[in-house]
């Protein structure tokens, strides 16, 4: 049994006058510890699919499960969601922000609180726990958001363009940090991105979606020699450039047909 199963998912948005199919027959599986990316042109349904995987709403047809349990049931509590914006509460301290999930789930105690504070230190943020979000840079805030996402020890992490609002240097540093953190915790992750380079550097598998409606157009399996490298170093490998060009051409063809 696969860790994550997306089984023939269709989704249609209905209004009083129209019905728009966003996703059609999306089907894939992922093993525990695998990092996959969803890549494709605007409007191909990437974020809709991520929301369905998160259990935020059911698909029109199909099923998503984690270890055989539907994400619409108790499995949804095993999912962590990290977005483009950090959505930290400005009136709460960093410590209060990163322990909020534990508090809401009734898991906040001295041991769990210390574990999250230790993770904050591992992220290079020692000493900021009593500060407020406005006192931190954008990159620091995203690291805090990652700690908050990991605080409840979710089995699956969903990343919706978490680095797109950052400057390029900070983005590259955070790619490495997130990649290393997820590998060390053996977390399974699904990344939505428009960035081909980011998808190649961070992923084990890339699903390229076409649009109108969103379908899996092509699957790219990242070469082993790239998967073993940190994202920053993967970007400098010759196989990275070759794969980048291949995916670029596929995307261009999709956008031409759109």
UniProtKB/TrEMBL annotation:
PROSITE patterns: ABC_TRANSPORTER_1, ABC_TRANSPORTER_2. InterPro entries: AAA+_ATPase, ABC_transporter-like_ATP-bd, ABC_transporter-like_CS, ABC_transporter_ATP-bind, P-loop_NTPase. GO terms for molecular function: ATP binding; ATP hydrolysis activity. SMART domains: AAA. Keywords: ATP-binding, Nucleotide-binding, Transport. Residues 4-236 form the ABC transporter domain. This is NitT/TauT family transport system ATP-binding protein. It comes from Bacillus oleivorans.
């Amino acid at each position: 049994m696969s860790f994550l199963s997306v089984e023939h998912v269709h989704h249609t948005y209905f209004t009083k006058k129209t019905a728009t199919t966003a996703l059609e027959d999306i089907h894939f599986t992922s093993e525990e510890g695998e990092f996959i990316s969803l890549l494709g042109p605007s409007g191909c349904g990437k974020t809709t699919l991520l929301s369905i995987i998160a259990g935020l709403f059911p698909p029109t047809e199909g099923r998503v499960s984690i270890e055989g349990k539907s994400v619409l049931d108790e499995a949804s509590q095993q999912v962590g969601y990290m977005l483009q914006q950090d959505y930290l509460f400005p009136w709460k301290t960093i410590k209060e922000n990163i322990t909020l999930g534990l508090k809401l789930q009734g898991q906040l105690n001295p041991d769990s609180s210390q574990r999250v504070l230790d993770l904050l230190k591992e992220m290079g943020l020692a000493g900021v726990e009593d500060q407020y979000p406005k006192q931190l840079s954008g990159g620091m805030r995203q690291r805090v958001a990652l700690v908050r996402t990991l605080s409840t020890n979710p089995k699956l992490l969903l990343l919706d363009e978490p680095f797109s609002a950052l400057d390029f240097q900070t983005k590259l540093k955070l790619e490495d940090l997130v990649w290393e953190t997820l590998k060390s915790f053996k977390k399974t992750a699904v990344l939505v991105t428009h960035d081909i380079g980011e998808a190649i550097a961070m992923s084990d598998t890339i699903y390229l979606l076409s649009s109108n409606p969103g379908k899996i157009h092509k699957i790219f399996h990242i070469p082993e020699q790239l998967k073993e490298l940190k994202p920053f170093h993967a970007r400098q490998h010759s196989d990275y450039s070759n794969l980048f060009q291949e995916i670029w051409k596929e995307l261009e063809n999709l956008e031409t047909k759109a």
